[in-house]
Write a structure and sequence with these properties.
Elements: H1 3-12, H2 18-31, E1 34-35, E2 40-44, H3 47-61, E3 65-72, E4 78-85, H4 89-95, E5 99-100, E6 103-104, H5 115-129, E7 130-132, E8 142-146, H6 149-161, E9 167-171, E10 174-179, H7 182-191, H8 195-244, H9 253-264, H10 270-280, H11 287-308
Antiparallel strand pairs: 1-2, 2-4, 3-4, 5-6, 7-8, 8-10, 9-10
């Protein structure tokens, strides 16, 4: 079972009140049903969603619904659930604010008075044509795909009213509303009240964030080590020149010690050199003191190069 299927099945088990059922059903039928003059056809692959839609229609409108189960054998065997409604078609569609006087109407906030209704409408859209990728397998991605641009723009506006930022794009003659922020996707799962899936999502998110932080720290350590080694090699080259030309006596005592210890320990950091010199010699030197000695070395070499030119 995929993460997306698991989330949808958990959502279908969460109890909701009658108003939420009507709003969710309105959204679902708008985005995932075939509306004809004499019937409404709903085609589903998820048994839990089929059961929820069936029960909600039965409870709200008290009508009989024809259920057909077909088996699809493309690549793998799977069941297809087809719900067909033949009674009270106009009454159902008008009651759910999908059609008015025989004409399909656009979704509007005037039918969604509270945040609970907005969330129910969003939940219905997600159950109808939405997907959330498994954070353990791929990146963070939430999407709902629509046939019409106006529907995508309405869902964007609906999400904004819930303080959720989303984007949309056109893809293969469809319009996709999508979110790639892990935190925002977590908020959506939370408002759907899918607690178990939320815990799973957050566990994966924490693990990935920790892993990324460790990788960044390791990369930083490696970069610092490479920088230390490269700096040490350059300093060794300068020190070899100074020793060969007998220029060491031109430096003060502390700088001499730093130069000598650098020659012995080319891969040490400035702090390690400072600690070693302070331990071995009769004076204490800090990291900044070691750095100051190497600044003197660098300036001395620059003067030598200028004089040679």
């Amino acid at each position: 079972m995929t993460f997306n299927v698991r989330l949808k099945e958990e959502i279908t088990k969460i109890p909701i009140n009658l108003i939420e059922k009507r709003t969710e059903l309105s959204s679902f039928l708008r985005y995932n049903s075939k509306l004809e003059k004499n019937n409404i056809i709903i085609t589903l692959e998820n048994a839990a969603i089929a059961r929820r839609i069936y029960q909600n229609i039965k409870e709200i409108f008290g009508i009989n619904i024809k259920i057909t189960i077909r088996y699809q054998k493309r690549f793998r065997v799977k069941q297809i659930y087809i719900l067909e409604i033949f009674d009270k078609i106009d009454f159902i569609l008008e009651s759910l604010n999908i059609i008015s006087q025989g004409t399909k109407i656009e979704p509007s906030f005037k039918y969604l008075e509270s945040n609970e209704e907005k969330i129910s409408y969003l939940r219905g859209a997600y159950l109808a044509c939405g997907t959330i990728s498994d954070p353990a397998i791929s990146g963070y991605h939430f999407e709902i795909v629509f046939t019409y641009k106006k529907d995508a723009l309405f869902i964007i506006e609906l999400l904004n009213s819930l303080h959720i930022k989303a984007k949309w794009l056109k893809r293969n003659n469809k319009y996709m509303v999508y979110i790639k922020s892990a935190e925002v996707i977590s908020d959506i799962i939370r408002i759907f009240k899918a607690v178990n899936t939320l815990f799973y999502f957050e566990d994966i998110r924490i693990y990935r964030d920790h892993k990324n932080m460790v990788n960044r720290l390791n990369n930083c350590d490696i970069a610092n080590q490479e920088k230390t080694i490269n700096t040490g090699l350059k300093q060794i080259k300068d020190i070899d020149f100074i020793l060969e030309e007998n220029y060491l006596d031109l430096f003060d005592e502390k700088s001499k010690k730093v130069i000598i210890y650098r020659k012995k320990y080319p891969d040490y950091s400035y702090q390690q050199l400072a600690d070693l010199i302070s331990e071995k010699e009769n004076f204490k030197i800090s990291k900044s003191g070691v750095n100051h000695a190497f600044i003197k070395l660098k300036k001395f070499m620059e003067k030598i190069k200028k004089s040679n030119k």
